[in-house]
Amino acid sequence: MADDTRQPYRPRMSDAALAPTRAVQVRDEYGDRREVHIAGESPLTVFVDDREIVTLMTLGSRPEALAIGYLRTQRFVYALEEIAAVEVDWERESVRVTTHHGVEGWDEKLKQRTVTTGCGQGTVFSCTIDHLYDRRLPAVSLRQSRIYDLLETLSGHNDVYRSAGAVHGCALCGEGRIVHFVEDVGRHNAADAIAGLMWLDGIGGGDKIFYTTGRLTSEIVMKTALMGIPVLLSRSGVTHMGLELARDLGMTMIARAKGRHFLVFNGSENLDYDAPPERRNEAAVTRLSRAAGE
């Protein structure tokens, strides 16, 4: 039998990651001078075949993957093989994506867009929504113990947040491991970067869990669905439109996950409660739920 060792296709790319934090001098409540770290934030304008598409505010730690993932989740590009090159130039605050054969229908794609509640400002184009229901998410069976294991592992990955705060983190989770973890100033940027990394590494989403530190809005549900991931997990809360969309798509949605506490908003039939914690009284449960949703 032939040994297929072919590597996933990768376009020609720059390697222009920025340091995610900056050291600054401050004075504390005693008037003493201290050095602290703050999250970076830089504008990055995406050009595709010399056409300006959008300006994203980002940490800049994964700019090439961010650009690719943005084009993927907005359904501007349907396959990584369509992209010839991705070149980041921080002096011009731009990333130029070159395709092999151009992108058809730019005017139609850019004509209608919706500004969303993503951190900073997110955008969903009509072509994203048009293709959202083209696929059905795969069936899933998820153990409660796996959720707890993931939450414990994830607690050691938010380096930028611990150092500087002011960022969100997103993770692509496989069986017993974190495949990718990305932090950025907006959770939609971190999600797009993971979408780009999945393409670059040839990773499918059918057996994965997508984790975010931010709230589960319709935008995050859309991005997760377009990556083909059937389970969405967050330590934050849920919006009504996000929940309605998850129900329509058959996505398992678990939120307010912190410690041993979580709430399954959709897909509870897919969960095996194999590690139930000791029951608390109702007042304690209410307080914990409110704290986890802050």
Please describe the topology of this protein.
Elements: E1 12-13, E2 21-27, E3 33-39, E4 42-48, E5 51-58, H1 63-73, E6 83-89, E7 94-99, H2 106-111, E8 113-116, E9 122-125, H3 126-130, E10 142-143, H4 144-154, H5 159-164, E11 168-174, E12 177-184, H6 187-201, E13 209-212, H7 218-226, E14 231-234, H8 240-249, E15 252-258, E16 261-266, E17 271-272, H9 282-292
GO molecular function, one term: sulfur carrier activity
GO cellular component, one term: cytoplasm
Subcellular location: Cytoplasm
Structure description:
There is one protein chain. The protein has 294 residues and is of the alpha/beta class. It folds into two domains: 122 residues, Ubiquitin-like (UB roll); 151 residues, 3-Layer(aba) Sandwich (Cytidine Deaminase, domain 2), CATH 3.40.140.10. Helices cover 29% and strands 31% of the residues. The chain has nine helices and 17 strands. The strands form five sheets. A six-stranded mixed beta sheet has the order 12-11-13-14-15-16. A five-stranded mixed beta sheet has the order 1-6-7-4-5, covered by helices on one side. Strands 2-3 form a two-stranded antiparallel sheet. Strand 2 and strand 3 form a beta hairpin. Helix 1 crosses helix 6. The longest helix has 15 residues. It is globular, with a radius of gyration of 20 Å. The N and C termini lie far apart (55 Å).
